[in-house]
Amino acid sequence: MNPKLLSIIPKLVKLSLSQWQVRRLLEQYKGVSRSCQLILRDDGDETAIWIGIEDGEIKVKIGRYPATNTVTMDVDVFIDIVKGRVDFRTALWHGAIQVESHDGRPWAYHGFLWAGFWDMVAQILR
Amino acid sequence: MGKTTVSTNLATKLSEKFRIGFIDLDIYGPNAHLLLGLPEVPAVEQGDMLVPPKIEANGKEMQFMSMAMFLPEGVGLAIKAEFVLDIVKTIIQFTRWDCDLIVVDAPPGSLDVVNYTLDLVAPRAKAILVTEPHRMSLSDCLRLYDILKLKEIELSAIVLNKYNLFKDAEAFEAEVSRFGAPIVKIRWSEELQSGLQPDLFEELAEVVV
Known about the structure:
A: about 130 residues; five-stranded mixed β-sheet; B: four-stranded mixed β-sheet; three-stranded parallel β-sheet; 9 strands
């Protein structure tokens, strides 16, 4: 795990304490099953995080696992997004985030879903 | 030329009788949300498709997709045409539209994205050509009409927008009347600048459906 990610721990704590808002966010994902491989790059190093949403519950694992799409970005971009300094959607469409589809659907399909997801997360963390 | 004004008002008028979906396909410069508003929730996934969120316009619900939902206000989009085509494909082919009619605010001109969109919708689509009745726009109209013929898309109406502002409007009307589609004239008015005025588009709604 990249040590730079330690700087977002306060935000993650805030997220875990905002249970009511998180529950509201996850309600949108009831009956939904999807997974994403998040790759965070930093000077040749790579941190792989697998994020799965299953029927309104989020599961996170460190490492590479099968996923419908891969989202790749610099670790600094990810930290800026979590800290609210960069908007996920802006970073996505301006090429700071790459989305790769593994299930035959267009990459924009996954991009739209993650854009919506991160927009809601950002609102909670604001 | 007023495509967004015409399409949003037409969709709103049609929503009085039909379940309507609205797509703002002006990927680089979406504006329809300024008249229709943005949905409060994002698009979500159901099964293998996106489900478009709903907005309420004039007291009626409408399914809605626009790049404006996925881009903060004021942020410019500088992406390659191939990415735009991927976005168009997602909105048209990978979105579950549960409605009677879909109104599409098409991108301007005859760029790749317009051609691609027409190819995707061609089997079932009808077109409305929105133009201002003056000399400069006549060649655009002729070009677009030719593309529609090429794609075998029926032209269901020609809208002469801001008809009352142009002195050569009658001559223009005579030129486009040979396309054989009904001509609907929309007058420029103060009211149309202030927001949706679906009742001004009743004639168009009757002609196209």
